[in-house]
Every structure is written in structure tokens, then in C-alpha cells.
Amino acid sequence: MNKSDLLQFIENSADECVALQKLLTSHKALAPENGGDGEWEKCAALEEFLRAHGITNLERFDAPDSRALHGRRPNLIATIPGKKQPVAASSLGLANDSAASLACDSSGASGAASSSLANNQSSGAIWVIAHMDVVPVGNLADWKTDPWTVVQKDGKLFGRGVEDNQQGLCSAFAAAWAFVANKVQPERTIKLLFAADEEVGSKYGMIWLLKKHPELFNKNDFFVIPDGGDPLGQTIEVAEKNVLWVQFTVSGKQCHGSRPDEGLNACLAANRLSVALYEGLHKKFDARDDLFEPATCTFEPTKRDANVAGVNIIPGSDVFCFDCRVLPRYKNEEILEEIKKIVAKEEEVSGAKVSIELLQNAQSKATDKNAPVVKALSSAIKEAHGIEAKTIGIGGGTVAAELRNLGYDCVVWSSLDETAHMPNEYCVISNMTRDAKTLALMFGIE
Questions:
Q1: Could you tell me which of 127, 205, 214 has the C-alpha nearest to residue 172?
Q2: Active site residue 418
Q3: Active site residue 133
Q4: Is residue 60 helix, strand or coil?
Q5: Using an 8 Å Cβ cutoff, are 171 and 436 in contact?
Q6: Which of 62, 133, 163, 409 is catalytic?
Q7: How far apart are CA 409 and CA 281, in angstroms?
Q8: DSSP string, 98-159
Q9: pTM for the full model?
Q10: Residues 6 or more apart from 259 whose CB is under 8 A from it?
């Protein structure tokens, strides 16, 4: 099979991608922090789907989490061996269980064999990393359809998670399936990682894998994260802002709504503090970097907990959060020091006490815009779609940050309309096959 035939196969795989989207969306893979029990059932359904399509070299790396179903958060890796292998490709196979058996030793331990393959080939593997978990639906009244049942309309799929991050997951599947179904061996080994826990910090996903299974990854590997992009698939993200999530608990004294003089209004103090943080942080950390959009740091009040049950009760406690996206030129420690100064000043003014809790604290490094993975992806985009790619930075956080901080060059890229986390989230169906073609060219077709 030649290159054009393989790309045509991918073009014709849209129905399979839609079927996979419907399957995945029906399983509510919410983190325990978001009221769910994790990704177990979604991962099981995905694994069954992959096996049914001949992708059988599968390994599970489950992170322990007592809050989740079965006490584990699954991370699934699919491997399609490439031509540059330390052992004969014919002995590995492409779409049969003999390949999968190489991933386990006689005791049943997974990971060692296929990992050594990736780590010993001179050109390295190509990883495509998508996450299985999704965010909550938010206000259900804002949805025009059932968030957990995919609706197909006007060339789009509507449902929670269809773009973030199931579109990238399906593109990765379609690209890999083209090689497996047609018994074509890619030039480079394909590694598809379907990770847990990305939406709330990757503690049980990418962070856990890098800490507990560093043998999986090699500095010669390419890493592509299809979890951000633009409608044309033109932008390659090489840098992310630092992420700092801070929770503030403001403590006052509860009293009757008619006698504020007998209490200390924690809600009022929290409101004052929120405004002071917003204005003070933006004023002090005001640098611009046009690599990013927006080009400045952002400091936004977001989640707020319920305080009291009645209108006529002055709250004695109020809890709110800030989502801070910080340009890499600043250190998160600098932000925290300024936060503490603002808090101390507001405590003095209001008389309330404030405690601070860090929910996420991620400092980011950048991938060089001339790194081999950037050049390889740019070349594939140009060949597939005739588009000149450009490098950017983003404010959103992805698993790329964890990889970059350990010295792995990686890119975040896909063709999408950026409806992530919104009501009526949708995926453009053609984007799945469009991006799969680009990935297939990166994998290597003669």
C-alpha cells in the first residue's frame, strides 16, 4: 500500500471515529474532585474497541487512588512497532496477540518489553498523548442536547469531551489503525498514551507515569499532545504559562443579617480580597509576551463555595479560588509572595483571617521552536494540508508541561474550534481524519 492509499483509508475512517466518540462519551470519566469515580469504565470500553480493531499490543499502568472505581486510575498505552527495531519486525507482528505478549514477562508484569524497544531504537518512538477524563457539564440548562449522548449534526458531534480530548484520541486511533488494518509498518514506533487525570492536574496520570515508570520514555522520542490548537491546525504550541490555582478561606463571625455589628462578614471580606488580588497582581506582573494569547498574565477569580443557606444570615466563612496563568518569565513563588502581602493587608483592614491552599502549582519550560519534533510536525502539516505552521504559547495547561520540565521536547497541536469546557461542546468530524493524516505522515509512510 502506498502513501496516498493509506491516507485515503484514513479519510474513509470517519464513521469509525464517530462510533468511538459515541462510545467514549457514554462513559462519564470525571475525576473524584469533580464528583466522579475516574476513568475505569471508559478505559475498559476503549481497550475493547482497540482490540476489536486489531490494536492489541496494549499495556495498563494503573495509579492507585482509593477514591476511584476499583481504587485505580488507568493509563493505557498502545504500541505499533516501527521498522527501526532492535529485533526483527516480523517477530513482533502488527495486529495480533503475539505482539501484546511481548509486553509482559513470565510473571505478567507489563511495560518492560515494549519500553525497551522504544528506548533502544536510534530514532525514538512517536508518542501521541490524549487524556480520557473530562470536565463536568456545568449548568445543564445551557446544553441543547444530553451532554453524555453524542448528537451528530451539520458535520459536528456534540457532547461533553468530544473535543477535549476525545477528538485527539480519535485522531491518534485513526492514524494508528490505518497502519494496523493494512499491515503497513510505520518507519517509527507508534506509542499511543491514553492518560488519566489531566483535567485536575495529572497527579494520577502523566505525573505518576513520569515518576513511577520513567523507563517508558526516552529523550529521542517525539511527543505530540493533540489537546490544543486552532481551526486550521496551523499553530504548534511550544510553551505554556505557569499554572497556579489558589484557594482562599476567609473566616469571620456569623450573625443575623439585621445585626452586622455583632459579627464579621466573611463574604464582604472575601469580595474585598478578591478585587484586591485581581487588581494588585495584574498591576505588579504586567509584562507582555506576544508568543502567548493573551500576551499577559491572567489572574481570575473562579470557583466559589456556598457559604450560608439563608439570605438573613451573615456568613462567618467564605471560600473562593483564583486561577492564575503566569508568563514563564515569572516564578510562581513571586506570585505567591505578592498574594501573601495582599492577604495580610486585607486581613488588617477587615479583621478577618485568611488561609491559603495551593490546588495546583506548575512551573513550565518551553520547547525550542527548532526542535526536531517541531520540524517534523511542521513538515507533516505542510505535506498533508499545504499549510505553513507557526509556533505559539498558550495559557492553558496540558501534560506537555510535565514532560518539558524533565527535558522532553514536545508539541501541543490539533485542528479544533476550541469549545473545550463550554456548554454544547462540539467536535468537527472532518478534523479527526484531517489530523490523523498529519500524524500518519509523522509516523512515516513510504
A1: 127
A2: no
A3: yes
A4: strand
A5: yes
A6: 133
A7: 31
A8: HHHHTTB-TT--BSHHHHHHHHHSTT--EEEEEE--B-----GGG-SS-TTS-EEETTEEES
A9: 0.79
A10: none
Beta strand 317-326 with 298-304 is: antiparallel
In degrees rounded to 5, what are phi and psi of residue 427?
-125, 135
Q: Alpha-carbon distance 303 to 325, whole Å?
A: 15
Question: How many CB atoms lie under 10 A from the CB of residue 137?
Answer: 19
Q: Which three cell numbers stand for residue 212?
A: 513511577
Measure the CA–CA gap between 61 and 51, rounded to whole angstroms. 17
Q: Is residue 121 within 8 Å of residue 86, measured between CB atoms? A: yes
Distance (Å, rounded) from C-alpha 130 to C-alpha 117? 21
The gap from C-alpha 231 to its chain's centroid, in whole angstroms, comes to 18
Residues in the chain: 446
Three-state secondary structure call for residue 33: helix
Strand partners, 134: 30
| Per-residue pLDDT tens digits for 362-390 | 888 899 999 999 999 999 999 999 999 99
Residue 56: the pLDDT is 98
Burial class (CB in 10 A: 0-12, 13-18, 19+), 136: middle
376's grid cell: 517534523
**Residue 304, CB-side half-sphere exposure with 13 Å CA sphere:** 14
The active-site residue, picked from 16, 198, 240, 425, is 198
pLDDT tens by residue, 19-76? 999 999 999 999 999 999 999 999 999 999 999 999 999 999 999 999 999 999 999 9
pLDDT in tens, 97-129: 333 333 333 233 333 333 333 333 457 999 999
pLDDT tier, 1 (very low <50, low <70, confident <90, very high otherwise): confident
Residues 96, 111: Cα–Cα separation, whole Å: 18
Helix (H, G, I), strand (E, B) or coil at 355: strand
DSSP assignment of 67-78: TSGGGEE--EEE
For 100, half-sphere exposure in the C-beta direction (CA atoms, 13 angstrom radius) is 16
Which residue spans within 230-329 are E strands per DSSP? 235-240, 242-251, 255-256, 298-304, 313-314, 317-326
**φ, ψ for residue 128, nearest 5 deg:** -115, 120
